[in-house]
Amino acid sequence: MNLLNKHVITFFKRNPAISATAVAKEANVPPASLRNAIAGGRPLPEKHLVSLFHVLKKYGFNEEDYNQANVICVVNHKGGVGKTTTTMNLGKGLALEGKKVLLIDIDPQSNLTQHCGITTAETTIADTLLDDEPLPVQEVSENLWLVPSELSLATAESKLVTDVNGWFKLRNSLRGVKSQFDYILIDCPPSLGILTNNALLTCNNVIIVIETEYLAIKGLGVILKHVDGIKNNGLNDKLNIMGLLFTKVNTTVVSKTIINELRDVYKKRVFEASIRRNIALVEAAGAGTDIFSYDSNCNGSQDYLELAKEIIER
Ligand SMILES: Nc1ncnc2c1ncn2[C@@H]1O[C@H](COP(=O)(O)OP(=O)(O)OP(=O)(O)O)[C@@H](O)[C@H]1O
Ligand SMILES: [Mg+2]
User: Fold this and answer.
1) Same domain for 174 and 29?
2) Average pLDDT, whole number, for the chain?
3) Same domain flag for 59 and 97
């Protein structure tokens, strides 16, 4: 494998406790050059990257993790909080930033599929989960692809539960696909059942979408416990809560209070970006298109682009 400058930057972002200066000295690379490259300055020349490769491997650099898509699932067992809206528009935001993005609709309601403007699909995620068919990936727009869903996925749940491989179907089907994308976003149904568990066993990051109301906050503990359970039982040791995302944010005192309280408790685990309540997001969904194509100047476009940029930075 060729170590690239972006791998070095990502490695130090993911491992803040590892000293760039110590690594540079060990690899006979000028520490200032390495620190500068990590800060987004001048890229390291090839000879330095070659020397760094062997040292970074000693510190846990694993080629596989760096040539694979960042797989993010968008979760909340509460319905109607903005999971599908977020998957669609974050995905498009990442695509507009030049990233190759695959969206996966694993919800029998198929709202993400409809949001992408697709009304009928010959093969869907149901064929993959039930009959081990290859993932049906179809192009939506530049840099953006979708694996559609259909209502019959609802009946798949009971079949998956009785299948010994039922929890691992999505993970297995994504193996050959992960190297083709920068990001894979999975839109989960409003439950913590076997479909969401398929997503949680497949992804390395979780975005928990929450509305700023007290009842919504109550469910947060349930999701965090569920994610911990999957991680602690060795079902997916790479599972990480990427962040809590506030949606449908309004200007009420309750909304502001909840945001402040959760930022105090979860600190950097709350995204800086938040999504304001914006009717254009509803209209874009109804029109079967993303918010940027619907109205590139509205609050929804601004907020989702900011979120996309924040995620690229992480
Ligand atoms: N920021 C927002 N401002 C206004 N309306 C929004 C916003 N985000 C989502 N909505 C609307 O709220 C409704 C629910 O959103 P969405 O379908 O994204 O939620 P969901 O969590 O995916 O729902 P489900 O749990 O049923 O899958 C939709 O009508 C959507 O257009
Ligand atoms: Mg949804």
Assistant:
1) no
2) 93
3) no
Tokens coding 243: 């962040």
Please state the domain count of the chain.
2
Ligand 1, residue 278: give the atom nearest the CA.
Answer: 3
Number of Cβ within 10 Å of residue 221's Cβ equals 9
Q: Are residues 93 and 167 in the same domain?
A: yes
Q: What is the pLDDT of residues 94-131, one digit of tens each?
A: 999 999 999 999 999 999 999 999 988 889 999 999 99
**CATH number where 79 lies:** 3.40.50.300
Pocket test for ligand 1, best of 207, 281, 299, 306 (most atoms within 8 A of CB): 281
Same-domain check for residues 183 and 108: yes
pLDDT of residue 158: 85
Q: Mean per-residue pLDDT for 161-166?
A: 89
Tell me, using a 6 A CB cutoff, whether residue 113 lines ligand 1: no
Q: Hey, which residues does 241 pair with through a beta bridge? A: 206
Is residue 161 located within the same domain as residue 16? no
**C-alpha distances in angstroms, 53 versus 13, 18, 24, 125, 202?**
16, 15, 11, 38, 27
- Is 111 touching ligand 1 by the criterion CB < 6 Å? yes
Q: Are residues 255 and 117 in the same domain?
A: yes
Q: How far is CA 85 from CA 105, 110, 179, 234, 272, in A?
A: 12, 12, 25, 31, 18
Residue numbers of the domain that contains 84: 68-313
Give the pLDDT band of residue 1 (cuts 50, 70, 90): low
pTM of the model: 0.87
Nearest to 138 by CA among 152, 156, 120: 120
Q: What is the mean pLDDT of residues 50-68?
A: 87
How much is the average pLDDT of 158-172?
Answer: 91
